[in-house]
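ASSEMBLY PREDICTION REQUEST
Request ID: AP-0331
Submitted by: J.K., bench scientist
Number of chains: two
Total residues: 899
Priority: normal
Notes: Please return the full assembly, not individual chains.
Input sequences:
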Amino acid sequence: MSDQRVLTLRVLRSSPGEGLAPHWEDFRVEEAEGMTLFIALNEVRETLAPSLQFDFVCRAGICGSCGMLIDGRPGLACRALTRDLGPVITLAPLPVFELIGDLSVNTGKWMRGTAERLQTWIHAQAEPDLTALEAPMEPALAEAIYELDRCIECGCCVAGCGTLRMREDFVGAVGLNKIARFRLDPRDTRTDEDFYELIGDDSGVFGCMSLLGCHDVCPKGLPLQTQIAFLRRKMASTGL
Amino acid sequence: MRIVYTDVLVVGGGLAGLRAAVGARRRGHDVIILSLVPPKRSHSAAAQGGMQASLGNTAKGEGDNEDVHFEDTVRGSDWGCDQQVARLFTHTAPQAVRELAAWGVPWNRVAAGEREVVMDGRRVSLSERPEAHGLIAARDFGGTKKWRTCYVSDGTGHAMLYAVSDRTVAEGIPVHERMEAIALIHDGTRCHGAVVRNLVSGELSAYVARATCIATGGFGRIYRVSSNAVINEGMGAAIALETGAAMLGNMEAVQFHPTTIFPAGILVTEGCRGDGGLLRDAAGHRFMPDYEPEKKELASRDVVSRRMEEHIRAGKGVKTRFGDHLWLDITLLGAAHIDGRLREVKEICQHFLGIDPSRDLIPVRPAQHYSMGGIRTDARGQARGLRGLFACGEAACWDLHGFNRLGGNSVAETVVAGMIVGESMADFVESVNGDLQVSTGLVREFLDAEQARLDALLQGKGSENAGELMRRMQDIMTDKVGIFRSGELLSAAVEELQALLVRSRQIGIATRRPGANPELVTAYRVQKMLKLALCVAWGALQRTESRGAHYREDFPRRDDAQWLKRTLATWGDAFQTLPTLSYEALDVASMELPPGWRGYGARDAIEHPLTAGRVSEIAAIRQAFGHADRFTVQQALMSYEHLVPECFRGRNARIGESS
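STATUS: Completed
Returned structure:
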C-alpha cells in the first residue's frame, strides 16, 4: 500500500503511584490493514514504551476491559479500527473511575460496589430443587431479559454520564439497567417498593438529567434511554 | 511479611473458580478469590454457543439423557477421557443448568408449535411439543447425537458468568482483583497457599490456605494464533508444575477450533454450524460432505479443523496476502435468525471485518482454542502429588475431554466441576487432612525466593528481550506444534524451545519500576510459559500415534495397543530443560464404552488387546439384565455414583421421566 498512513497515538500518560503529573505523549505507528487500537497499542508497548499500561482481555468486544476515551469519546479500544479514525488519535483513560495508570482504570472496584449496593442478583424465596424440571418461562420474556443482560460493565456509560460529573454517588446507566433487568425477571421476588428503596432518589433514577450520553456511547447498543424513562415512571408512581 | 489466612483460596475468577468458591462458602468456610482481572472480564465470558446438558426438551433432543451425553463425550475424546468423570459430569450437568436458571441465566426457551430450521443446507419444519413450552431449549453442536446445547443467544458464557459472579457477591465472597499467584507454597507433599503479586503495586504477599484451588483457565497464548483472551497464559498450571510435585496431564492435547475469523483469530461460535451454517471453499463448494459424509460440518472439532487444513493444503482455500482461509456461510440462516441467535457473531463480523454475515461469507481458519491438558486431578478435583491442592475447569485435567472436547462441554465443565470441587474442598477442610500445619518460616522462604527472582529480573544485567522470546515461542508452537504434527517438526520445536528456555534465564528489562510493569510481567510469565510449551511439544513428540486433536502425520492411526494412556509431566528440578514424563494407563477392562469407531473421522485404530474381551463382557451384562431400567444396567457396567457429592445424587427429571 503506497498510501499507508503513519498514525500518531497521543496518549494521556500518568502513574499515580510515582507521583508523575499526567502528560500527553505521542507515539508513531505505521498503520496496517485491519488494524485496531488493540494491535496499535500493543505495537507501541512492544517497540516504543514497554511501561505503557492498558487493559485488554478478550480483544473481541465481549469482556468490556478496554473502555477508554478515543478522541474524547468513550469506546472499546479493541474493536476500534484505525481506518475509521484520523491520523492523530488521542487516547485517555475513562474518567470517574479510580486511575491505575496511563489508560488503565479500576472499573472492577466500581462495578463490584454497584453490585453490592443494588444487590444485582436474583432474590428468591427458596433454594431450587436441582433435579426437578425447571420452572417454565415465556420464550419472549427470556429474550427480553437477555436484551438487558447483555451489559458488559465496560464503564463507557459511566464515563459518558453528565450526572456523574456532579454527584459521584449516582448509580449510572449501568446500575439503572441492572435494576430494569431484575425487575423484569419473574424469578426475582423483589417488588417495586424494594427497588424504590435502592434507586428512588437523586442518587438513583431521579438523579438522571436525561442527557443520555450513556445511550449514545453504549458499545452494546442497550436501550438505556427507554429503560431509564420507564423506570423513572414506575418509581415515580411507586413513590406517590 | 504480609500473610493473609483463609480456609479456601481460589486462584482464578472465571466460571469454574467462582462456582467452586460459592460451594465452599455455602458450607460455611471462608473463601478468597484471586483474579488477574475483574471476574466478569474472565475468558468464560467469551463462550458463545452454549452449554451441553441432556434436558431433552426440544424436539430434536427428545430421548436424550445422561447415557447419550456420556457416549458422545467419550467418542469425542477419542477414548482418552476418564469415563467415570464423564459419567459424573453428564449426571450433574442438568443440575448445573437448572441451578443457573434459578440464579437468573435467561436461557433460551422452547416455543411450542411449528418452526423452521436449517438442517444440512435445507429449510425444514420442526414441531415442538406443547408440554415443553417454556422449558430450556437446546441447539445442535458438533459430535452429538441429540440437540443438547442449552444457550442464551450466542452470549451464553457472558450470561452464565454474570449470574455466577453476582452470586459470589450475594454470598459475600471477596475477590482480590489484579492479583496474580506466582508460586504455590508447599513442603513437597502438602500445598499451603500461594505467593501473590499485586499487579498494581508490585507488592508480594502470602495467602495461606487450608485448601487451594487453581482455576486459571487454559494456556492458549503459548500459540501465536489463538482464540484465547490475552490473559490465558496458563500461569495456574505453570505454578503447579513448578512445585515439582503436582503433575500436568495430556498437555499435548490441544484443541484447534474450526471457525475463528481470519486473520485475527477471534472465535465465531460452533452454533453457526449447529444452526445450519456451511463451510465453503474458494470456489464456493461445500466441501465437508466430501470428507465426512456422516456428520459433515458437525463432526467433532478436531476432525473438522483437520479437514479444513487438508482442503487448504489441496489448494482449495481463498488466497490472501496474510495466507489462505475458507468461508463460513451463514447467509442461509437469514437476518432474523442471526439478529436473534447469533448477534455476537454479527457484531464481531461488523466490527472486525466490516461485513454483514446475513449477506456476506465469513473468512475463517482453525486456530488454537482449548487446552484439554492441565493439572491432573482425581474425580473430586484433588491434584495428584500435592495434598490440599485442587483444580477445576480448563486449568485441570479432570479428565473429561481426553484428546478432544466437544463444543459446549467446556463451559458446562466449568460449573459442573465447580460444583463438585466446591463440595470436595469443603469436605477436605472439614477433615483432619485439612488442618493447617505450616510454619511462617516456610512461608517466608517462598516469599523471599519469589522476591529474589523478581529482583533478579528488575536489577539484573540480562540482555534477552522477554517480548522477543514470547513471540518466538508463539511462532514455534503455531508453526510446528499445530494441527498437523510430525517427528521432524516436533523435534525441531523441542530443540528451539529448550534454547529459548535457557535464554529466558537471562532476560533483562528496561522498565525498572517495581509496581505496575507490563514488561516485568511478560518476563516472569514467559519463563513459565516456555515450560508449558515444552510439556506440549515434548509430550507430542513422544506420543507416536494420532488421537483426537493430536495428529501425527508420521503415525496417523490411533494406537490403543500402545497409547491408551495419559501423559503425566512433572518438572522436579528448576534447571532441567525438559519435563519428566510418565504415563498412566487407561483401564479398558473397566470401561463402560470400550474403544471403537467414533462415528466420524478415521476408522483404522490399532486395537487394544483387552477391547474385544470387554466388548463381549458388556454384551453379556446387557443381556443378563434384560429389561432392567437404564440406571441399573449402567451401574452394573461401571459404577460412578460414589463419586457424586451427596447433594447432587438425585435423578434428573425430564418430560416423562421423574426425579
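REVIEWER COMMENTS: Chain B touches chain A through 78 residues (CB under 8 Å).
SIGN-OFF: pending second reviewer
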